[in-house]
Here is the input.
Amino acid sequence: MDPAGHLYGDERLRQLMTHCTELAAEPVVDQIMRDVRHYAGEAEQSDDITVLVVRYCGLEQIRKEA
Here is the structure.
């Protein structure tokens, strides 16, 4: 939450992810955590934070590697 009590929200996360499509997992996690901390500002952390990054490469990529 931000200092006014507004949740970070799925829409904000979706918007952030549009700028991270070419990044590897670790930089995506770093970007998310930076944005959450920026959004929260001085607000006390109100819940646990868990981040899992999964990249779907499509069936063609899976077939190439098999």
Q: What stands out?
A: The chain has three helices and no strands. Residues 10-65 form one domain.
